[in-house]
Structures are given as structure tokens and as C-alpha cells.
From TrEMBL:
Catalytic activity, EC: 1.2.1.8
UniProt name for this protein: Betaine aldehyde dehydrogenase
Pfam families: Aldedh (PF00171)
Active site per the UniProt annotation: E251
Family statement drawn from the similarity comment of this UniProt entry: Belongs to the aldehyde dehydrogenase family.
């Protein structure tokens, strides 16, 4: 297929041109088109949901034994692995992440399918302790058609986290990827088909979320929405879900504190803080974007941190040695720049960055350097709002009591990091920090076997973990009567 040809989208097992506007996806490192496609239309949404509903009812997928569904999921994992380099290169072009990072995301997507295949075939239903003349059981059943709505920052990994457990549970899935990064979701649908998943169980609808995502969420046949994205959008989805009495899981934004105590191992802490905020160019919900450093250590720590950040390699995502690629789009870079300007207007001082780089590839793509601000208070806007870019605000602290108050003083509560040589101290502090995930002497490490999600404005529900599959299932209680005699209450009246 040539670049100018329009890519088909996947509507209930049929590959066809979307009914919406034609648009190009662009490589953030150069601004050049990667692929052309037509967005899905509202008719495509309707066809995808109706087709998924029919596939759910008639394909027999939901009725297959768990180990049979698992076999297909293992095959999906295997096909992702076979194509891993091609997928990693495509994702690099789709969202501009460095190739080493996209390879890791593709590997994680394969691992996710493998994990949920195993979760599916080992999921146990329970016989509950009987309290009468009956046997009582608790079993799980699929929900029907679920919607997976994903953002642009980690395509394929985000989709896999929703699609794998949803399919494992026996459902059909309609994916709405971010308008600007639809290519990996389309590849995933193809792989599902090749792996032998019945037609219609997966659809992919690229295009604007305000139109398509909204229509999907409102659709009466959509029985659950699993959403990852911004808090504002998440709240909007939650309102619609409330009206439908529909369960949702919402993985939303963050402004995560990273805490360096006065007894931290500095080599580990500097490397961890740099990785926590600047990897993925800061376009990560869990970015450690608020740095709290014990005052006694503040000056030497910041000196090492700034020197380390200045050495990070910002550049061509195709280059194996690149650590930071461009931001996703021109508009997003402008938003990051506005936050840096706001930080300065609020009284912050720049320790590093804050200026677009220039020359060579920097003039073509949406590059922005590691940027560090100090001199701000935790209650200021720059310290409270998610920037979603490579911008770190550094704050010294004097006492642990003050630290805990400030670290928890945020609408968000997604993640946190603690650096200390004293494990008891770090443990005690970790239990007091309000966050869905706390990393101690490490940061931004992930495991599909460990549940993930946020508190407060960072979201609702948990993804991942062996029991993550239950998010996509309804629980049902079954009672079997074992009485020798009719039920006593009307037993006498029932006799002829
Ligand atoms: P958005 O909320 O703008 O978009 C996320 C997805 O929702 C996109 O597919 C978008 O479509 C779609 N969408 C937009 N409007 C609606 C609507 N009214 N109804 C249904 N769907 C809609 O977030 P961003 O794309 O800006 O992603 C960045 C955000 O995601 C950050 O806040 C980040 O913290 C968060 N995030 C959270 C993670 C977590 O696990 N907690 C992980 C990764 C990111 P489209 O873009 O096509 O318009």
C-alpha cells in the first residue's frame, strides 16, 4: 500500500473505508504524514456496536471453554512477538517515542495477552459456604460489548490492557484509539483476526473522541467503558455512565510526587528522578513531575540532577541511543510552553531547558528539552496541574510532616516515588502517601501482574493483575435446592 492510499478501518470484522473525514497521521519527529485514513462516522459506530453484539451472541466465543479462549489469546501474543520489530517501528512513527521504548511497549502488549490468557484459563469460581438446604455458587459471566477508549501516549500497550482481559472474559470490544495514533490498534485488530478470533468481536474506530467516543459511551448496547485519558474527559464519561448505570474504569491524569529523603542513595535517586519525569518526554500519566528534596540535600542533589538532565539525549526516535523523542504534536508543545511561561510568571526560576532546541531535526519536529523549575510553592498552578511534558518542579522540604501534607495536597493521586536507604522509614512514609502506586527506591516500573489505577481525580477502578479480568465480567450467584421436602413456608399448602 502506498502512502497516499487510504487505510481501511475495522468495523465489526469488515475492513472498509471509514465514513468520516480523510486525514493523515503524522510522525512527530518530522511532521510528515505516516498514513492516510478516513475517520469513522456515526454510522460506523452503529455498525461496529451492532456487529459486535451479534458476534457476542452468535459467534460462540462467550460459550467457549476458558482454555479454548486462552488458546486464541496465546496465539495473539505470539503473533505480536513475531511482528514486534515492524510494530515497534510503526509505533515510533505513530507517536514519536524512541525505538527502544516502543520495543518495550510492543513486548508488554504481547505479555499482556499471554497473562490474561493464563488468567482466563485459571480463573476459579467458588462454591460458597452453604447456610441452608442448598448448594450456593458464585460464577462470572461476560458482559457483552465493551468499549475501550485509549489516549495517544502508549498505543498498543494501552489497547492490550483493555482488549486482552475483555476478550478473555468472553466479550466483544470496540476500540476507539486516539484520533492521532490509530495505526497500532488497527494492526492489533488484524492480528486478532489472524489468530482466529471470530469476526466482529473486535472493531477499531479512529476519529474524534468528542463525536465517536461520546456516541460509543452513550450506546445502549455498550455494557462497560474502559477509558484511559484526561480527567476532564473521564468525568464526562462517568456522568454518562451514571445515567446508564454502566460500570466504567477510568485511568486518568497525575501530578505525582517523587520524594528524596536525606539518607537517599544519590546515584539511584538521580537516575530514578530523571527516568521518572523525562522518559517518554514526560508524556506519561505517572510522570514524577513534583520533586520534593530534603533541604539538607537540596543544593548538591539539584546540581547533580540538572547536570544529568542536561546530558540526556534528545533527538531522532529512530536512533538507538535516543532517550527523549519529540512531543506528540505542535499543539501539545505549545501547551507545555504555556505551562513553563506560567511557572515563570508565578515566580519560578529555570534551572534547565525552557527553550525549544533548534537546528537539524529539531526544526522539523515538536521537540522540547528537559526543563526544571524551582522557587514555586506546591499550591501554585504549575505544581497542581498536569503538564504531560518534560517539565519538573523541584521543592525543598524541612520536615516529614510538611512533606506528607504537600505531597498529598493535589487533586491527583496516581503514583509516588520515595528514595531512602532506610526501608522502615520509606515503608512508613509510603503508607502515608495517597496514591494508587508507590515506588520505593525505584520508579515507573510496571508489571502486568500488579493492579494499577488512581485515587481521586486520577481515576476509578484498577487495570492489570490476575483479577483484572473480573472488571469485564458480571458476577452471578447460583443456588441449587437440595431439600428432601418442599420449602416449609408453603409446603403444606402445596400438597394436593
Ligand atoms: P483525552 O481525554 O483527550 O483523550 C483520551 C481518549 O478519549 C482519546 O481517544 C480521545 O479521542 C477520547 N475522547 C475525547 N473526548 C471524548 C468524549 N467526549 N467521550 C469519549 N471519548 C473521548 O486525553 P489525551 O489524549 O490528552 O491523553 C492524555 C491524558 O491521558 C493525560 O491526562 C494522561 O494523564 C492520561 N493518561 C492516563 C493514564 C493512566 O493509566 N492513568 C495513562 C496514559 C494517559 P481523540 O483524542 O481522538 O479526540
Amino acid at each position: 500500500m502506498t502512502l497516499e492510499q487510504t487505510l481501511p478501518i475495522c468495523v465489526a470484522g469488515t475492513w472498509r473505508l471509514g465514513g468520516g473525514e480523510r486525514y493523515a497521521t503524522r510522525y512527530p519527529a518530522t511532521g510528515e504524514p505516516v498514513a492516510w485514513l478516513n475517520a469513522a462516522s456515526l454510522e460506523d459506530v452503529e455498525d461496529a456496536v451492532q456487529g459486535a453484539h451479534q458476534a457476542f451472541l452468535n459467534s460462540g466465543w462467550a460459550q467457549r471453554k476458558p482454555h479454548e479462549r486462552a488458546t486464541v489469546l496465546y496465539r495473539i501474543a505470539e503473533l505480536i512477538r513475531q511482528r514486534s520489530e515492524e510494530l515497534a517501528q510503526l509505533q515510533r512513527q505513530d507517536n514519536g517515542k524512541p525505538i527502544n521504548e516502543t520495543r518495550a511497549l510492543v513486548a508488554s502488549a504481547a505479555g499482556t495477552f499471554q497473562f490474561f490468557a493464563a488468567a482466563c484459563e485459571t480463573l476459579e469460581e467458588t462454591i460458597t459456604p452453604s447456610r441452608g438446604d442448598f448448594v450456593s455458587m458464585s460464577v462470572y459471566e461476560p458482559m457483552g460489548v465493551v468499549a475501550a477508549i485509549t489516549p495517544w501516549n502508549s498505543p498498543i500497550a494501552s489497547e492490550a490492557q483493555k482488549v486482552a482481559p475483555a476478550l478473555a472474559a468472553g466479550n466483544a470490544v470496540v476500540i476507539k484509539p486516539a484520533e492521532i495514533t490509530p495505526l497500532l490498534a488497527l494492526q492489533l485488530a488484524q492480528i486478532c483476526e489472524e489468530a482466529g478470533l471470530p469476526k466482529g468481536l473486535v472493531s477499531v474506530l479512529p476519529g474524534k473522541g468528542s463525536l465517536l467516543g461520546d456516541a460509543l459511551t452513550q450506546h445502549p448496547l455498550i455494557k462497560r467503558v474502559s477509558f484511559t485519558g484526561g480527567t476532564k474527559t473521564g468525568k464526562h464519561i462517568a456522568h454518562i455512565a451514571a445515567d446508564k448505570m454502566m460500570p466504567v474504569s477510568l485511568e486518568l491524569g497525575g501530578k505525582s510526587p517523587t520524594i528524596v529523603l536525606d539518607d537517599a542513595d544519590l546515584d539511584h535517586a538521580v537516575a530514578g528522578v530523571l527516568y521518572g519525569i523525562f522518559s517518554s518526554s514526560g508524556e506519561a500519566c505517572i510522570a514524577g513531575s513534583r520533586l520534593f528534596v530534603a533541604r539538607a540535600l537540596y543544593a548538591p542533589f539539584m546540581q547533580r540532577l540538572v547536570a544529568g538532565a542536561a546530558r540526556l539525549r534528545l533527538g531522532d526516535p529512530a536512533d538507538e541511543s535516543t532517550q527523549m523523542g519529540p512531543l506528540i504534536s505542535a499543539a501539545h508543545r505549545e501547551s507545555v510552553e504555556r505551562y513553563v511561561a506560567l511557572g515563570l510568571a508565578e515566580g519560578g526560576r529555570l534551572l534547565l531547558g525552557g527553550q525549544r532546541p533548534s537546528g537539524g531535526i529539531y526544526d522539523q519536529g515538536y521537540f522540547y528539552p528537559p526543563t526544571i523549575l524551582e522557587g514555586l510553592g506546591n499550591n501554585q498552578q504549575t505544581c497542581q496541574e498536569e503538564i504531560f511534558g518534560p517539565v519538573l518542579v523541584a521543592l525543598p522540604f524541612d520536615s516529614e510532616a510538611e512533606l506528607i501534607e504537600q505531597a498529598n495536597d493535589s487533586l491527583y493521586a496516581l503514583a509516588a516515588g520515595i528514595w531512602s536507604r532506610d526501608y522502615k522509614r520509606a515503608w512508613a512514609l509510603g503508607r502515608k502517601i495517597q496514591a494508587g502506586t508507590v515506588w520505593i527506591n525505584t520508579y515507573k516500573q510496571f508489571s502486568i501482574s500488579t493492579p494499577f489505577g488512581g485515587w481521586r481525580d486520577s481515576g476509578l477502578g484498577r487495570e492489570k493483575g490476575r483479577l483484572g479480568i473480573l472488571q469485564y465480567m458480571e458476577q452471578k450467584s447460583l443456588y441449587w435446592g437440595m431439600n428432601e421436602q418442599p420449602l416449609a413456608w408453603a409446603g403444606a399448602e402445596a400438597r394436593p
